[in-house]
């Protein structure tokens, strides 16, 4: 049984005798009149089916005779001349395990029959597929009317995430392997790109080298818009313009990840463009590095994401006091985010997987979620001191540093999946100016 079939079986069990799930492919994105961007699959649909094409819809129905139906684009030789071969209805059964498959144009008429006996439909509203949404809502409306007479028909609409989010949060071994590959590709791309970091080089060159190395290694492409932020740009959390030339004495913050075999990586390193940290840069860097290590040490089964964040914050605040960014007792200041959040405005971690910011709540019934083996997350503390921060010592103004690694929660603690890409200051300095690898 494939991983897709195993997951579908689990979903069908969780749907119970009166539930169904309708998953629609992500919409194709068109810019301007007719420029189609490269297609990216919907993670939920792919997680259960592996189906890679646009327009598809999967319908899973529980009960004593559970069923899995795919609606897909049919073969079309004329269109395939322009956009490439399609799987078609036949392969939806033969290669993707559907019990039955139909052309997507038949969804509206067949959905009524598939859902006529269920009470609850798991479908996501507002996901960019108004055509599918209209079909589901039509079934719900007519089902409600029919139920008064027959006693059967869908009356409850709920989100698929109630079932899928927790499933996706804990990764299966093959998913961990795919994430490892994405991290490896990303780390290699960092080494290649950072070797070109030097005064006079453009941020856009680092972006191009990073993403080019990912593609050469077989990645689908970047998982998100690459951040190559030099100088004061590194104090902007999601800076993506990448249009500045680096200067002597700058830091370069590179935040990027490969999307490889559908799964994602997300790493950040901050390096001195000139090859050596200045004394203030090194001081700030060491604070962030210590915070990252504290957060990794706190990440273990039974701990919470809040514990990980608190460990990073406590270390960062002590460093902020030492650097002159804050005044007072570090333990007291760490409890009052209005003091430190101006220098560290984001959380320390997010889930990682089929989405860069992967699904899964960070709390359960009002309490922080406990970490379990198989969860994958980022650890990414930082300090950001804008160039115009008059309440910061002058020698620190314009310094932005973030260090980010991807970790796997294991039975005994946390494994840093990206440990091959160094974080120690001396090793980071050696990343700059090395000869790019082929």
Explain briefly what this protein structure is.
With 438 residues, this protein is an alpha+beta fold. It is built from 14 helices and 21 strands.
Explain what the structure shows.
This protein has 438 residues and is of the alpha+beta class. It folds into two domains: 3-167, Creatine Amidinohydrolase, Chain A, domain 1 (3-Layer(aba) Sandwich); 170-431, Creatinase/methionine aminopeptidase superfamily (Creatine Amidinohydrolase). It is built from 14 helices and 21 strands. The strands form seven sheets. Strands 6-5-4-1-7-8 form a six-stranded mixed sheet, sandwiched between helices. It has a three-stranded antiparallel sheet with strand order 9-12-13. β2 (30-31) and β3 (35-36) form a beta hairpin. The longest helix is centred in the middle third of the chain and has 22 residues, at 173-194. The protein is globular, with a radius of gyration of 25 Å.
Question: Topology of this structure?
Answer:
Layout: H1 3-15, E1 19-24, E2 30-31, E3 35-36, H2 43-49, E4 57-61, E5 67-72, H3 77-83, H4 88-94, E6 100-103, H5 107-115, E7 120-122, H6 130-150, E8 156-158, H7 161-169, H8 173-194, H9 203-216, E9 221-222, E10 227-230, E11 251-256, E12 258-260, E13 263-264, E14 267-272, H10 279-298, H11 305-323, H12 330-334, H13 337-340, E15 363-364, E16 367-368, E17 376-379, E18 382-385, E19 399-402, E20 405-409, E21 414-416, H14 425-431
Parallel strand pairs: 1-7, 5-6, 7-8
Antiparallel strand pairs: 1-4, 2-3, 4-5, 9-12, 10-11, 11-14, 12-13, 15-16, 17-20, 18-19, 20-21
Helix pairs in contact: 1-2, 5-6, 8-9, 10-11
């Amino acid at each position: 049984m494939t991983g897709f079939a195993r997951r579908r079986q689990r979903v069908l069990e969780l749907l119970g005798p009166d539930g169904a799930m309708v998953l629609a492919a992500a919409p194709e994105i068109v810019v301007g009149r007719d420029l189609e961007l490269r297609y990216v699959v919907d993670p939920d649909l792919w997680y259960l089916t592996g189906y890679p094409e646009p327009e598809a819809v999967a319908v899973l129905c529980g009960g004593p005779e559970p069923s899995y139906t795919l609606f897909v684009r049919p073969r079309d030789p004329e269109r395939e001349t322009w956009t490439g071969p399609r799987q078609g209805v036949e392969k939806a059964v033969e290669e993707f395990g559907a019990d039955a498959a139909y052309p997507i144009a038949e969804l509206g008429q067949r959905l009524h029959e598939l859902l006529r006996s269920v009470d609850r439909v798991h479908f996501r509203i507002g996901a960019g597929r108004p055509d599918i949404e209209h079909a589901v809502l039509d079934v719900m409306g007519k089902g409600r009317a029919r139920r008064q007479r027959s006693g059967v028909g869908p009356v409850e609409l709920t989100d698929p995430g109630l079932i899928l989010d927790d499933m996706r949060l804990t990764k299966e071994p093959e998913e961990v392997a795919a994430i490892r590959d994405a991290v490896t590709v990303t780390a290699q791309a960092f080494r290649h790109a950072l070797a070109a970091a030097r005064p006079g080089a453009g941020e856009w060159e680092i972006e191009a080298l990073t993403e080019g190395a990912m593609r050469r290694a077989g990645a689908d492409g970047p998982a998100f818009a690459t951040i190559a932020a030099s100088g004061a740009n590194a104090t902007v959390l999601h800076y993506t313009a990448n249009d500045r030339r680096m200067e002597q004495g700058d830091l370069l913050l590179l935040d990027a990840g490969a999307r490889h075999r559908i799964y994602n990586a997300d790493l950040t390193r901050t390096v001195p463009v000139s090859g050596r940290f200045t004394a203030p840069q090194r001081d700030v860097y060491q604070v962030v590095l210590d915070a990252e290590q504290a957060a990794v040490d706190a990440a273990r089964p039974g701990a919470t994401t809040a514990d990980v964040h608190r460990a990073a914050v406590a270390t960062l605040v002590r460093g902020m006091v030492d650097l002159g960014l804050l005044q007072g007792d570090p333990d007291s200041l760490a409890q009052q985010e209005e003091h430190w959040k101006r220098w560290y405005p984001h959380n320390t971690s997010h889930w990682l997987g089929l989405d860069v910011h992967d699904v899964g709540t960070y709390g359960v019934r009002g309490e922080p979620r406990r970490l379990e083996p198989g969860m994958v997350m980022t650890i990414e503390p930082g300090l950001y001191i804008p160039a115009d921060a008059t309440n910061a010592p002058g020698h620190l103004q314009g310094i932005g540093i973030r260090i980010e690694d991807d970790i796997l929660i294991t039975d005994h603690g946390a494994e840093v999946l990206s440990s091959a890409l160094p974080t120690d200051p001396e090793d980071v300095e050696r990343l700059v100016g090395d000869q790019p690898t082929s």
